[in-house]
Design brief:
InterPro entries: ABC3_permease_C, MacB_PCD, Macrolide_Exporter_MacB. This is Efflux ABC transporter, permease protein. It holds the Pfam family MacB_PCD. The chain crosses the membrane at residues 20-40, 301-321, 347-371, 395-420. The protein has 437 residues and is of the alpha+beta class. The chain folds into 2 domains: 2-47 and 291-434, no CATH class; 55-290, no CATH class. Helices cover 50% and strands 16% of the residues. It has helices at residues 2-11, 13-44, 77-92, 123-128, 148-152, 177-184, 236-239, 252-266, 280-290, 293-325, 327-335, 340-373, 395-426, 430-434, and strands at 55-62, 97-104, 116-120, 133-141, 172-176, 193-196, 201-208, 222-227, 240-246, 272-279. Strands 3-4-8-5-7-6 form a 6-stranded mixed barrel. Helix 2 (13-44) packs antiparallel against helix 10 (293-325), helix 10 packs parallel to helix 13 and helix 12 (340-373) runs antiparallel to helix 13.
Length: 437
Amino acid sequence: MLKMIFNQLWNQRRQNGWIFMELLVVSFFLWTVIDPIYVLTANRHIDSGYRPEGLYVVQMGAYNESNALYNKEQDNDSLSKAAYWRIVRLLRQQPEVKSYSISYTWAFPNSRSWSGTQIYADTASISREDGYVHAQRYDFAAVEGSNLFAAYGMTDVRTGGELKLPEDVRHRAFISERLARRLFGTIDVVGRKVYQYNKEDVEVAGVFRDYKHRDYEQPYPLIVYMDTDIYGSKYMAWDYGLIIRLKDGVDADAFERRFKKEVGPMLSIGNFYFDKLQTFSELSDTYAAQSGMTNKLRLQYALASFAVLCIFLGMVGTFWIRCNARRQEIGLMASMGAGRKTICRQFLVEAWMLVTVAFAVMLPLLLHHAWVNGVYVMEMKDYFVPNPDYWQNRFGMHFLLVTVLSYSLLLVVALIGTYIPAYRAARTLPAEALRDE
């Protein structure tokens, strides 16, 4: 059967030429469109390293001289600090709040800023100015119950349990699994020292599971520092973020309504005022939109849909004409006992061979394109070293997966586009099909 179909395609090569050329072009185009979709989707499904459910950011603002509510007498560091502590204590006393954190604005996921640093495993590397790992930096005030790890739901990489803050947090820090492995090659590093570029050393108090700062990015090596106090300034509203986690079983919608109606107005203390309450999911959506990720994905899906539509219409048109031209052949097959499934199968096999040959011809060019230009990678910081544990960071596996996805999508659409005219032709009665024979 395959030999007969191959001969049929070869004999009609001129008629098949235009759809074959379209398949070649769309094969290349579809591969380049699916590549970023695959990477962004794969990154999105990497475990975030924290629990976003029931997690909120309380955004505060501060009045300035141009505002009628500005209080000049309250505009000094000590009074600003006292006012901020009153706000913090009001938040932590709410019955729905389980834990909270006073985090810097770069120290919670999908926040508007990012902070990085150079971390060394020893002082010799600092002297040589090599051997460092570029790491993301988080800071929070570990005082009066403020606990970033408990609020975010970050866990110990070894036990999977809660990370315990040391009694004395000075000169101590927590690091991520990725940072520990890149510095020391192991996660058993509690008690060891790490150094910054200025030779300041901190002791590793714990190692947590890899953590994502952006949903569409991969986990970056991360170090978390702990402060023993907060500084006083009217800029605290923009420098700190108040993170709260709700207790299990709390009705989130009811909490939000009550908070905005009752709690929010109470937070207007001194020159500070309550701005908004945001879930971590809302932060994620906001950042994805502002950074262009949402529009990028929409564009890629639109381009893929356009390519798929072109192939669908092309296959429908080609096989509609072909089926009409081969009415006698179809009628003869039906008169000799061939069923509709057999007739449809022959045309589907023809479509499969066209798609497969076209994709195989284009495959070396796709490989050359990926090798020379590189496969798609998420735009991250200049010092980012991809983790080879993820398939999207391994060239061979990355290329194979995108190729399989592109070919599968192309083939499915082509077969659907072929089946419609083939099924219509197979329903033709033998006598009607052979009357012009």
